[in-house]
Amino acid sequence: MNKSIVAGVLALALAGCASQQPDQPFTLTVAHINDTHSHFDATDARLELDNRALFTRLGGHPRLLSHANALREQATAANQPLLFLHGGDAWQGTGYFKLNQGAMNADVLSRMQLDAMALGNHEFDLNNERLAAFIESVEFPVLAANLDTSRDPHLAELDNLKPYVLYAFDGNRKRRVETMKDAGRRPVVAVMGVVLEDMPDIAPNVGELIFEREVQGAQRTVRHLREMGVKNIIAITHLGLERDQRLAREVNGIDLIVGGHSHSLLGDFRNLGWDQNEPYAQVFTNQDGRGKTCVVQAGQYAQAMGRVDLTLTPDGQLLRCEGGNTLLSDNAFFRDIRRAEQHRLAGQDAERVAAYIEAQPNIAIVAEDPALRAHIDENYKPALDRAYGRVIGHVPAELRHVRMPVAGQGSEVAPLVAASQLYWANRPEVRAVTGRQADFALVGAGGVRNSLEPGELKEGHVTLELLPFSNAMSIVSLTGRQVAGLLLETINASLPEGAHTGKFPYAAGLRYQFDETGKDRGFLSRIEVRRDGQWQRLDPQASYQVVMTSYNASGNDGWNTLYESQQVLTDRLDLAFVNGRLAAFPVARLSKTDGGRVQVHYINQPLDCKAQGVRCNTDAQAFVDYVRNQRPVLTALPESGITLNRL
């Protein structure tokens, strides 16, 4: 039995008998994951083990399932209640999603035997018809209590999309119930979902959905559950750690928040060469001054699983909340990230590393579930391998992507993406279509999905993983004042702890320095544009031709300055391939629906990325062309162009 499983056996065995007594404290174990982003295979990782840098692979869904099954076996042996929950954002992230459009997620996640999942923002990346198909096909409920679906033709009548679900427990045995009467004297746990209130600003396709404020929607649902007689309440959320903590402080009556969205691997991982993050299972006092709420989250990309043990009073008050995140590791370790056989540890070296891991509380060597591994390999992996296509270059050393600079270290990938877009927009064949010379490019950090690992770089690594959203490139005129306003807006919004940092701006052909002067605010002390090989100060009155994705050009993800500047009139051009030929689609203006979704109004023929013969992923094509023609040996640029001075 895995050592991370053994640790809890005695405590759970002692607690299991008490859980059946309605007049005794109720104990519950919750296993949880979030932001798995279609990482069905394990991901490469660098760890510092036994004082040396080593490389292995972490997670993947077959390894998650194996660990979850071990937790289930432990709970069964102890007759202990257990729930397995997902904090949202199962979609996007790898070529598996690009190829299977959510169907593989439904298949694999159902095999995981989840008890519930929250709706994440990336579940809205396709359209509500495909989302409805996903929700109806999974074998667990999908939850969103602050979501009004009544106006949406695809989601309005879904039986499997619920505000909450009730589980009645008889020791380890659990059963879905509709009412407290159905549960009899058995303890009941309500699991409710909370989704982002500003989803229309973050997700590209929300249809006619209405999103209620997070705190108000959560409190309303808790009040309803309490009136039903439910004492024990868990919220699975996709809000990010900071908003989860706000929810814990401002909403009365939630015992546990299982979160997602900020990809927070809670706990201290310095023993593995990683960071010390906020503590796992922090407890916050509710607004009423009496109740307490515990908050947990489990990182990203199916690399880790959290397990938290709760003890609740007969009236549903939190007495105990303890646990931690466990990274799930392969058993093969290498001295070099290229992972050639000559780099693999063997003999005493391998035994020493295994012994070191055995002594750590936050990592475990876990074998993949063989049945799920075989299912993925037989049904999905061959198409993925074919789809990755030709080699366009090589990455000699890892290029890291972080959304926002930390201690002066920013993304190495986002500046390359920006450079590729500026290069591509100024290629002669593109300028022949646009009639414009681009001055600089801006890239939102959230549009860049991953780091680049050493080795061959194939087309599919770009189109299916790095830039998977099939965004059209846009070129639009902005004044220097508007550019400065956009930078200030997005940087300031990214500063607060736990903020969604996907809006943070990287650039090519432009550089800036931002100085923080107070908590979560500051000013731009320098903005310069490169012209004729020289850096020149940005002129507030001058007009510049700026390249970016159509997603950001429409003001999505908090780039509100772009929306405001195009409400009346714009000269923006969106660029896409039509029957293999590059075409420009002039934009007239932008507007918003009643639900807050941005609408793009074109002058002539609208750009329909779903139309036959239309290919919109010119953002990915720009990077492919840049690597193939300019940087076949892809290394980091000498400087990112960004100086972010934090207090």
TrEMBL record:
Name of a matching Pfam family: 5_nucleotid_C
Transmembrane annotation, as ranges: none
UniProt KW keywords: Hydrolase, Nucleotide-binding, Signal
Record-given protein name: Bifunctional metallophosphatase/5'-nucleotidase
Keyword Flavoprotein on entry: no
Organism: Zobellella iuensis
Location of the Calcineurin-like phosphoesterase domain: 29-264
Domain 5'-Nucleotidase C-terminal: 391-562
PANTHER family membership: 5'-NUCLEOTIDASE (PTHR11575:SF24), 5'-NUCLEOTIDASE-RELATED (PTHR11575)
Homology family: Belongs to the 5'-nucleotidase family.
SUPFAM superfamilies: 5'-nucleotidase (syn. UDP-sugar hydrolase), C-terminal domain, Metallo-dependent phosphatases
